[in-house]
Design goal:
By secondary structure, the chain is of the alpha/beta class. The protein is built from 17 helices and 15 strands. The protein has three domains: 4-27 and 239-381, 3-Layer(aba) Sandwich (Rossmann fold); 46-234, 3-Layer(aba) Sandwich (Rossmann fold), CATH 3.40.50.1980; 400-429, no CATH class. A six-stranded parallel beta sheet has the order 1-12-11-10-13-14, sandwiched between helices. The protein has a six-stranded mixed beta sheet with strand order 2-7-6-5-8-9, sandwiched between helices. A three-stranded antiparallel beta sheet has the order 3-4-15, with no helix packed on it. Helix 10 (253-264) packs across helix 11 (279-293).
Length: 433
């Protein structure tokens, strides 16, 4: 069996029927204590702790320096085939175009009494980006670097530091360095795991701290980001990846299966769901999942994901399917129906929405332009994709006129005294004639 098949008669049945999905959020009790130990070690020992953990987990013969030299970055970039460089460059251009549309301007408003109020938008001073090594450095997650670095650059962040774990030989995959070189990023460190997050948050002798930490990682990295939040800003604490597909009778079951498996191959905890109002499609999709999964290089991972966290859910109609999708609030939501745009107004909760049969999630993951760092585990109910705003801060500006004070001092003072703050009241009244 590829995955479970559920039948709902109404949206009200979903909380009970989908209870099994909540198991993906169960934390490993041992992780947090282990991460706290790592954070404390990095704060106390700095670079020595980074080297110690790197030798233990990534590279037994690791030796400083932690930072990759500009010469090594350029040399590695030259090793990458021109075709790969061309594709990375094209993806970067699309991502930059999209994020440039997100930029916000500072603004001011003037009242009739002469007071000026406004909001100033500025980038943070420094950002730390985490790029996972990917299977010992053999599957470089270049898209993670592009999706995190480009919004920070568009925001105008003056310093961008990249941390990525070294391979067993101590080096970094040339493709990661080629992408950094393309983006004119020259601050790259050979350090990964929770200790990299600690270094970015607190700083060490050779790795100065930053203001915002962003980038995906395993449960140790994610937990470190959560525990460091407050000392630094973070993008989000994302969980395992997920896709939900809305499909009607017009959908191609082979395409739907391919898209579900594209999610399932990520991780045994990844979740791939299809909601459909057509039982015949559900049956054909189940067959396709079994057939396609059997020939995937990561078939064991995908099969485990589908068995534990995948499902085909049959609903009485697409209206019910959309209502259930809003309850789930998935990271990725594909709409493969005859008229996908007609359903968009009803979709309230999703990290990203992919409309039409030619909009697979994989295109968004790598190339289309919108960011692929998205809220997971139903947090799309209140959270948004990583964006230019992730790397900006907003400051309120007040230039109050004497006329405003004269007109409103009594109201301000009364409100202050309601709260028992006499000095607040007197500070306003001191400005009266």
């Amino acid at each position: 069996m590829a995955c479970r098949i559920l039948t709902l008669s109404s949206e009200q049945e979903w909380p009970g029927a989908g209870q099994w999905l909540k198991g993906r959020a169960e934390p490993d009790a041992g992780v947090e204590s282990g991460v706290r130990e790592i954070l404390a070690a990095v704060r106390e020992k700095g670079d020595a702790a980074l080297c110690e953990y790197t030798r233990r987990f990534d590279c037994p013969d690791f030796a400083p320096p932690l930072r990759v030299s500009g010469r090594d970055i350029a040399r590695a970039a030259a090793q990458v085939p021109p075709e790969h460089q061309e594709h990375i460059s094209a993806a970067a251009a699309n991502i930059r175009d999209f994020h440039e549309a997100q930029t916000e301007k500072s603004w001011f408003m003037t009242r009739a009494d002469g007071s000026i109020l406004g909001q100033r938008v500025l980038p943070v001073d420094a950002v730390g980006l985490y790029v996972p090594g990917g299977r010992g450095g053999n599957t470089p997650l270049v898209s993670s670097l592009l999706m995190n670095a480009i919004p920070a650059q568009v925001a105008g962040v003056p310093r961008i530091a990249v941390c990525t774990p070294p391979r067993g030989d101590g080096g970094i995959n040339p493709v990661i360095l080629a992408a950094a070189h393309l983006l004119d990023i020259d601050e790259v460190y050979r350090v990964g795991g929770a200790w990299a997050i600690a270094a970015l948050a607190f700083g060490t002798e050779s790795l100065p701290g930053v203001d915002v930490v962003a980038g995906p990682g395993n449960i140790w990295v994610t937990t470190a980001k959560r525990l460091c939040h407050g000392a630094v800003g973070i993008d989000m604490t994302a969980g395992p990846s997920e896709v939900l597909i809305l499909a009607d009778a017009t959908a191609d079951p082979a395409m739907i299966a391919a898209d579900m498996l594209a999610q399932a191959e990520h991780d045994p905890l990844a979740s791939a769901l299809c909601l459909t109002d057509n039982r015949a499609l559900a049956d054909r999709l189940h067959q396709e999942l079994q057939k396609q999964c059997a020939v995937l290089p990561r078939s064991r991972t995908a099969a485990r994901s589908l068995l534990d966290w995948g499902a085909i859910v049959i609903t009485p109609d697409m209206k019910t399917a959309v209502a259930v999708a809003n309850q789930i609030a998935p990271e990725h939501l594909e709409v493969c129906t005859a008229d996908p745009w007609s359903l968009l107004p009803e979709i309230r909760h999703a990290g990203a929405v992919f409309l039409g049969s030619h909009s697979p999630e994989a295109v968004g993951d790598y190339f289309a332009g919108p960011n692929h760092v998205l809220p997971t585990m139903s947090t799309a109910r209140f959270a948004s994709a990583l964006s230019v705003q992730t790397f900006c801060k907003k400051t309120s500006i007040l230039a109050i006129s004497p006329a405003f004070v004269r007109e409103n001092a009594t109201a301000v003072a009364n409100l202050a005294r309601l709260e028992g703050l006499e000095a607040h009241a007197r500070s306003v009244e001191a400005r009266l004639p």
